Amino acid sequence: MKTEICLFVTGLAALCVCFPASALAEGVLGFSPERADQHLALEARYEGLLTAENLRDWMQRMTVRPHHAGSPQAKANAEFVAGLFESWGYDTEIETFHVLFPTPRVRELRQLKPVPITASLTEEIADQDSAAEALRREALPPFNAYAADGDVTGVLVYVNQGLPRDYEELERHGIDVEGKIVIARYGGSWRGIKPKVATEKGAIGCIIYNDPRADGYARGDAYPQGAFKHASAVQRGSVLDLPVRPGDPLTPNYGATEDADRLSIKDSETIMTIPVLPISWADAEPLMRTLDGPVAPQDWRGALPLTYRLGGGGGTVVHLKTEFNWDLAPAYNVIARLDGSESPDEWVIRGNHHDAWVIGARDPMSGLVSLMEQARAFAELTKTGWRPKRTMVFCVWDAEEPGLLGSTEWAEHHAVELREKAVAYINTDSNARGLLSMGGSHSLETLAAQVAHEVTDPQTGVSVSERRRAYRLVKGTADQKKEARDRKDLRLTALGSGSDYSVFLQHLGIPSMNVSFGGEGRGGEYHTSFDTFDHFSEFIDPTYAYGVALANVCGRLSLRLLDAEVLPFDFAAAAETISKYADEVVELADTMREETEQHNSLVEENRFALAADPTKTYVAPDAKDPVPHLNFAPLLNASNRLTTVADTYGVVIQPVLDGERALGRNKRAALDRILYRSEQALTREEGLPRRPWFRHQIYAPGFYTGYGAKTLPGIREGIEERHWDETQKQIHKAAESIEKFADAIDSAIALLRK
Which of 120, 246, 340, 471 is deepest in the core (most CB within 10 A)? Predict the structure, then answer.
């Protein structure tokens, strides 16, 4: 079946070539026509240096043992990578931070009623896996980092995916979770949202399980016969409150150096206050089987062979106990630099983390080995006489899994220098066979689109851009199909959270991108003990061809940023996207107003019905406060001005891009600074409401989505949470930031017109 689909997509992708590209896509953004040909030749030489065997060999070497933060293998891997960078000629150091990383001491889960059951909480290891012995000896057991110590007993309630809307459904059934323990299935949001919302609703404990409907037997054969979860497999993971602030929970806004001042654990705002425990579906099944109460809604039901019920009636009572070792662990960040020949104080930064929950072949080693191959190939280019104009910085982060700790602490510690020097940050994490995925700052969208046209998809032979577009023409939503017909070029998605770009983009305002391939190398190995070299090599990317493709994409992005005559920022793309976001929040407010009016009308009708017939037992819901007519004029005016200024910049810079006008070195350096620091204009020092660490006014993770992005977050979440006065203030603040962004572009225009 997969082969047939791929052949069909390939055929469509071939047709995509005949569609006209945008005007900008016809050249190489940032280069004059003469220099563009030379640069494309350099990229071709770079591509020819990439070797899949290196990726396979490095991954095999670095996945022999578990390498969670603070483990001996984490240090050994950091030293191995640093040694390679040094041998390739990079100025390399390991910069160590000391971060809070709790590890489990006690994990207990027992059902007390209706029948006594003790959960095994044990993840079976596949004997056939080459890492089996090391896993049994060194792997941390399944746990949720930054859950609270706790010893609680309570009635069990099934809350589906544990999102706010799920609790609304429970309320409609008259079920309250206060003083109770909830059980939620993975999916729908980042895992940390589940205990966060449970705590807000008064629950005293949270259990999270993997339902086989998502990544178990309902999807395919279990490992080792297939790629998916077996009965005892468990997804580990952090429940740090990332939407409030990533990074070390004890050192907010500054680096966790050895002698740093630290908060007490009780004063940290990002550590959960209730016990949380992840379990397998084998341990979840007997708990779910005994639940009483109403039958769960259709979309709450998974693939366990039982009737899904909501519980809450007292029929199922469980005891949950967790205790942790609340210790500091060293986080070993590898930083390798190749100084630029012309502008050494302008840095292009490329990052991927090296720590894992267990073995971590796919997450993160599949991305790390691509970064390493990019660095090796760059070093080979220097032997032919090439030297980047700007400085290349490779960063291999530690302690990403617990909460983006290594990258956040490094960036907070070097914040002043990064705001001055960082041109852009390019991030990768996990990688697999399939389609190209790119998200990031929309001023980099044209750069990304052009690179995607240059890289060939290993499976289909067309460009990775054409393959993705063809897939959307066949499999996309109605909106995606329309855009694929109307637009040839790749569009960047907005970034939320979940990887190391967060501190660069959303805290410091550094233009950032996140890049990966995926969609075909599917499995259930995420954060389990069987995310191993054997699993990856059999099911995810057997030939490592997509690891090479990732190195190709990220290498070309880096080379263009390093060597461009004018930094390849396209503000028209950013203006178009911000305008789209502005229209969306206006529409959101209008839609909520209509829905509220309909809801309140229904409430009133039900009250009349109850008054006419007192025998009815229906309980009418409460009326909602009406949605006021908010003043979006400042936002829309700022967006319109940004569009005008961005278009003007495109006109003024064109003679330079066409090679008709040369810029002196001083003017070029001044223009560079304006361009790469313009993103900082979209940040505000006070940050977003209730989470000041997030300063970017256009992109942030959702307060109740975690990984998923919220655009114009202060406005959008103000509307969703019905904080009308706050929303109006956020409209003005976002408008001010967009105006400052336009001012920065205006200053570039003025410089070019001198």
Answer: 246
Q: Which tokens belong to 49? A: 């240096």
Same domain? 125 vs 236: yes
Q: Is residue 24 part of a domain?
A: no
Q: What's the half-sphere exposure (Cβ side, CA atoms, 13 Å) at 56? A: 14
Neighbours of 712 (CB within 10 A): 25
CA distance 572 to 557: 19
CB 518 within 8 A of CB 435: yes
Question: Left (φ > 0), alpha (ψ -120 to 50) or beta: where does 403 sit?
Answer: left
- List of residues 6+ apart from 86 with CB closer than 8 A: 92, 336
Q: How many domains does the chain have?
A: 3
Q: Quick: pLDDT tens for 171-208.
A: 999 999 999 999 999 999 999 999 999 999 999 999 99
Domain boundary among 292, 308, 326: 326
Average pLDDT over residues 28-41: 95
Are 515 and 407 within 8 A, CB to CB? no
pLDDT (0 to 100) of residue 24 = 41
Res. 623 pLDDT band, cuts 50 70 90: confident
108 beta partners: 321
Q: Using an 8 Å Cβ cutoff, are 348 and 416 in contact? A: no
Residues 6+ apart with CB under 8 A from 436: 452, 455, 457, 464, 465, 467, 468, 490, 515, 516, 517, 549, 553
H or E stretch including 440?
strand 434-440
pTM score over 0.90: yes
Which residue would you say has higher pLDDT here, 663 or 356? 356
In a domain, 58, yes or no: yes
Q: What is the mean pLDDT of residues 277-291?
A: 98
pLDDT tens digit sequence for 319-336: 999 999 999 999 999 999
Q: Which residues contact 589 (CB under 8 A, 6 or more apart)?
A: 627, 630, 632, 719
Residues forming beta bridges with residue 701, ordered by sequence position? 709
Beta-carbon count within 10 A of 173 CB: 12
Residue 670, CA distances (Å) to 637, 667, 750 in order: 29, 5, 12
- Of 521, 539, 563, which residue sits at a domain end? 563
What digits encode the pLDDT tens for the residues 539-552? 999 999 999 999 99
Distance separating alpha carbons of residues 702 and 309, to the nearest angstrom: 29
**Tokens standing for residue 209:** 């399980």
- Full domain range(s) for residue 171: 103-326
The whole-number pLDDT of residue 581 equals 98
CA–CA separation, 477 and 472 (whole Å):
8
Here the CATH number for the domain that contains residue 703 is 1.20.930.40
pLDDT band at 659 (very low <50, low <70, confident <90, very high): confident
Looking at residue 618, its pLDDT comes to: 52
pLDDT at 74: 98
